[in-house]
Design goal:
The structure holds 2 protein chains of 2 kinds. Chain A is built from 20 helices and 23 strands. By secondary structure, chain A is of the alpha/beta class. Chain A folds into 4 domains: 193 residues, 3-Layer(aba) Sandwich (Pyruvate-ferredoxin Oxidoreductase, domain 3), CATH 3.40.920.10; 183 residues, 3-Layer(aba) Sandwich (Rossmann fold), CATH 3.40.50; 73 residues, no CATH class; 122 residues, 3-Layer(aba) Sandwich (Rossmann fold). In chain A, a hairpin with an 8-residue loop joins strand 3 and strand 4. The two termini of chain A are 34 Å apart. By secondary structure, chain B is α/β, with parallel strands linked by helices. An 8-stranded mixed sheet of chain B has the order 2-1-3-4-8-7-13-9, sandwiched between helices. Chain B has a 3-stranded antiparallel sheet with strand order 10-12-11. In chain B, strands 5-6 form a two-stranded antiparallel sheet. In chain B, helix 1 crosses helix 7 and helix 3 packs parallel to helix 5. Classes of the chains: A alpha/beta, B alpha/beta. Chains A and B meet through strand 9, helix 7, strand 11, helix 9 and helix 10 of A and strand 2, helix 3, helix 5, helix 10 and helix 11 of B.
């Protein structure tokens, strides 16, 4: 038998539960209690497309070093679901630990000899303590949190503090939960070998960081970005974004005196109607958005082309999941890059923003509305399930009170009265962006007809080739203007000059940083660039030009961002090396490390440490 | 049809309305539809209705989908913003526009292909939401722009110009509109301006979802013998249940009518609809009776026209969503909660 794993503040605990058993809040309590002890955690829900009965997992990575990407494997498995027992046991790292409900005896063949088994008769304890079936089930979850606190050296006060916050004002609930917590804790202390080799030690590694989901942060971004109209259709994993917006509006978007709504939220009949309403509202001068996922993007294609061609601002939050078709509806991917970048028939190009964490979901969420108005075009904020639906530790949200909504080029009644020349599609400033008027602005001037058919620069219907070409060229110029307006890439140089570079984006960030650090420890040096937006800023192409080999790390099968780079930057395909994770699980540092290590070896790079005799 | 620019000259003594606008101020560019198209008569009725209601033209937003009917907003209200959106999706664009600014008048123009086939879903949902709008379907039972295919409102057994019999059941948009909760439902005929103009005026003044199904013969593809949407067929089978006077505000009622033949309906904006009953027992406020009446007459092959149903107390989407009186597109200054609120949010996330 290998040595049992001995690690402090650096391990993975995985909970295997049954969907609908009330485990989610207990597991969350567990994760947050570690945060309260100043140790960073990154939890991930792995859930089925189901409401009750199917297996669900909650994985908590504890990392004082601050690695927030998924790691893979589990050092301690809390196996509460008999359905998945075999695969759960198999996923424990050698030398790891298994915690399970030992009320019913299990045959020894069901265990592994290289894993420390910790049995606790949870059902028996619950049945002795509680009579109500619902209580038995819910408190069983809190009881195992109490036991885990004993096994991992988690301070009970941290858990109690969280229960106090959660049930503020409901003293009975606090007392009942604290009682269950102590029940589990006392049992473990008395009957189990506490603590085990995995331990939490109070640290100061969390700082002032906050813990929230990307969807919630993006919804707050929409509030701060001045959105007043939201039209959406429920689809996992984006529904919680629209629901969070509704919640925030209840708080921040009511007239203080009349309590009437300064917002309008419509649950539409489908995604076509959602984007149609967004376009109608934005055409009429309100800031509007929808939240959806891949299948919704597919349905919206025709309308997105209209918004591009007629130049109407629209903000779309795409919380990506595994495609194509229904694909893996509750798993993560970055596989809508191309279908958003070139959404619709005909020649189109759209702005994409690629947030790496909830904080950027907030900032880019707010920025998207300024960009959409400034550029008069659809803007996609590309979240994914991993950052959208999981709580992530990130820097606190910030806002500059001097900032004003940038409504872009809008001609007012005063402008028109002053005799300013208005042509809806006239490139007055040479940046490709024309002026618009809102409907109802002026009794005599500034009205125009919006259409998806070809028109001249004064919005008059036209079927003339030159009018069409002029308009399409101006749209390209506008896209060029966008390059400087969208968030620029973030470059990190290796400690030593290197011929190797890596490009990544979105939720891949934490795994990438961890992988780069590990590579560096082996003497393999890699410059990195994180893309934050499409169109691609010149710095991105310069970065590619400055390296012989560039890894493009993505979470889809077809290397979609690489395709976009090749097409838009005229880059030779051989230069861009694919590193692709697309099995629906979040990309890990282990995976990136393995892939890049191998390819660097193929390219005959000898790690420094091995080269030195 | 013509490519000539419309002359701007007009007679110096053209009558003006209360705002000082002439009829010409409500016109658009020259129609490119076929000569004699029923749709052009509807455009003319819209122009007439807006002129008579003294509407500032720029306070109307006109929206449409795709098709012959959807081209018409270019041909009326040239001083209004217009939006020719995508096929079958006018209702969602109009809904969004309406949410952004509740103060404008929303005129949605669509056709039977646009609303009964590709856009049936959006037609239905915009009505059930009670979007404050006038939704006109210019119904000719045929796809004109693609040259003569049947639409979903073509009657079963009717014959196309090429001699093909339609074997599908027709969609009756009037019955659907009543079922779906439209609070103003009318049917008219493009050839009957006298009936149509007051209906459009009343629909504009109505708060809530107002739907007008206007039979509008297609002279190019659906005006032959065997069609149930031809001028001749509709004239012969037109069964008007009432005709309408729309009285704005407190104008005195001057004309006398036989007692018992007039039904007065007061709308939320103070205007009064005076319905001159042609069918004696028809009550336009009784939705269930109206639906029964329609089904009976329809079975007898009649095209029932007039104001078929009205709920003068109807609410609209803004009322249901409890939105503020100020249009949402004018709220920029009060929308951002600021740094202090964000700091509090941060504190709750630790």
């Amino acid at each position: 038998m290998p040595e049992s794993i001995e690690r402090t503040n650096d391990f993975v605990v995985k909970f295997a539960n049954v969907n609908g058993s009330g485990s989610a809040s207990a597991n969350r309590l567990f994760a947050r209690s570690i945060l309260r002890m100043g140790v960073p955690v990154s939890p991930r829900n792995i859930f089925p497309s189901n409401i009750q009965g199917l297996p669900t997992w909650y994985e908590v990575r504890v990392s004082e070093a601050g690695h927030l990407g998924a790691r893979g494997g589990a050092d301690l498995m809390v196996a509460m679901n008999p359905q998945t027992w075999n695969e759960d046991i198999a996923s424990i790292e050698p030398g790891g630990y298994l915690f399970y409900d030992s009320t019913k005896a299990m045959p020894t063949s069901k265990f592994r000899s290289d894993v420390t088994v910790i049995g606790m008769p949870l059902t028996e304890i619950c049945n002795a303590e509680y009579t109500e079936p619902r209580e038995r089930q819910l408190f069983k979850n809190i009881i195992y949190v109490g036991a885990l606190a004993a096994l991992l050296d988690i301070e009970l006060a941290a858990v109690e503090g969280l229960l106090g916050d959660q049930f503020k004002g409901k003293e009975k609930l606090i007392a009942a939960n604290v009682h269950a917590l102590h029940l589990g804790n006392a049992y473990a202390m008395k009957h189990l070998d506490c603590p085990i080799g995995l331990r939490i030690r109070r640290a100061d590694a969390v700082g002032d960081r906050i813990f929230l989901e990307g969807n919630n942060a993006a919804a707050l971004g929409a509030v701060y970005g001045g959105a007043t109209v939201c039209a959406w259709y429920p689809i996992t994993p984006s529904s919680s974004l629209a629901e969070a917006f509704q919640r925030h509006c209840g708080r921040y978007r009511l007239d203080p005196e009349t309590k009437k709504s300064r917002h309008a939220i419509v649950q539409a009949e489908d995604e076509l109607a959602s984007i149609g309403m967004v376009i109608g509202a934005a055409w009429n001068g309100a800031r509007a958005f929808t939240a959806t996922s891949g299948p919704g993007i597919s349905l919206m294609q025709e309308f997105i082309g209209l918004a591009y061609f007629a130049e109407i601002p629209a903000v779309v939050f795409d919380v990506q999941r595994g495609g194509p078709s229904t694909g893996m509806p509750t798993r993560t991917q970055q596989s809508d890059i191309l279908s958003c970048a070139y959404a619709s028939h005909g020649d189109t190009k759209h702005i994409l923003l690629l947030p790496e964490d909830p904080r950027e979901c907030f900032t880019m969420g707010a920025d998207a509305f300024d960009l959409a108005d400034r550029l008069q075009t659809p803007v996609f904020v590309m979240l994914d399930l991993d950052i959208g639906m999981n709580e992530r530790l990130c820097a606190p949200l910030d806002w500059d009170d001097a900032r004003r909504l940038d409504r872009g080029k809008v001609m007012t009644a005063a402008d028109l009265d002053a005799g300013k020349d208005f042509g809806r599609y006239l490139d007055v400033d040479g940046d490709g962006i024309p002026y618009r008027t809102y409907p109802g602005t002026h009794p005599k001037r500034g009205a125009f007809f919006t259409r998806g058919t070809t028109k001249d620069s004064r919005a008059r219907y036209s079927e003339e080739g030159p009018d069409y070409v002029e308009n399409m060229q101006r749209l390209l110029k506008k896209f060029e203007t966008a390059k400087e307006l969208v968030p620029h890439p973030v470059v990190r140089d290796a400690k030593q000059p290197t011929r190797f570079g890596a490009i990544f984006y979105g939720s891949t960030s934490p795994a990438m940083h961890e992988a780069v650090a590990a590579l560096e420890a082996q003497g393999l040096h890699l410059d990195t660039l994180r893309i934050r937006a499409f169109p691609f800023h010149d710095d991105i192409l310069d970065f590619v030009a400055a390296h012989d080999h560039v890894f493009v790390v993505e979470q889809n099968r077809d290397a979609q961002l690489r395709t976009l780079l090749m097409t838009e930057g005229d880059i030779a395909p051989a230069k861009l090396i694919k590193v692709l994770n697309y099995d629906g699980t979040p990309i890990t540092a282990r995976f990136i490390l393995r892939e890049i290590e191998k390819r660097m070896a193929d390219a005959n790079v000898v790690p420094l440490r091995k080269a030195v005799p | 049809m013509t490519y000539l620019a419309k002359p701007t000259l007009h007679h110096p003594n053209l009558p003006t309305n209360k705002l000082g606008f002439t009829h010409r101020d409500y016109e658009g560019s020259v129609s490119t539809l076929c000569a004699g198209c029923g749709h052009d008569s509807i455009s003319a009725a819209i122009i007439q209705a807006c002129f008579e209601l003294d509407l500032p033209p720029h306070r109307v937003a006109k929206l449409s989908g795709i098709g012959c009917s959807s081209k018409t907003p270019t041909y009326f209200l040239g001083a209004s913003h217009g939006f020719n959106s995508v096929h079958g999706r006018m209702p969602s664009v109009l809904t969004g526009a309406n949410l952004a600014n509740r103060d404008l008048i929303y005129l949605g123009v669509s056709g039977d292909g646009d609303s009964a086939s590709i856009g049936l879903g959006q037609f239905a949902h915009s009505l059930r939401r009670g979007v404050n709008m006038v939704y006109i379907v210019e119904n000719n039972g045929v796809y004109g722009l693609t040259k003569g295919q049947f639409s979903a409102t073509a009657d079963k057994g009717s014959k196309s110009k090429r001699g093909i019999l339609n074997s599908d059941e027709p969609i009756d948009m009037i019955s659907m509109a009543m079922n779906l909760g439209a609070s103003f439902v009318a049917r008219s005929f493009s050839g009957d301006k006298k009936q149509l103009v007051p209906l459009i005026k009343a629909a504009i003044q109505h708060r809530g979802a107002a739907f007008i199904d206007c039979v509008s013969p297609c002279v190019a593809f659906n005006n032959h013998i065997g069609s149930t949407k031809s001028f001749d067929y509709v004239r012969e089978h037109n069964d008007a249940v009432n005709f309408l006077d729309v009285i704005s505000g407190r104008e005195p009622i001057t004309t006398d009518y036989e007692p018992g033949t007039i039904q007065s309906v007061r709308q939320h904006d103070g205007s009064t609809l005076r319905l001159h009953k042609l069918a004696a027992d028809y009550d336009a406020r009784d939705r269930i009776a109206a639906m029964n009446f329609l089904q009976e007459r329809q079975a007898a092959g009649e095209v029932v026209t007039g104001l078929l149903y009205v709920d003068p107390e109807a609410g609209d989407l803004h009322a249901y969503l409890n939105t503020v009186e100020t249009p949402l597109n004018e709220l920029d200054a009060v929308l951002v909660p600021g740094k202090a609120a964000l700091d509090k949010i941060n504190a709750g996330l630790r």
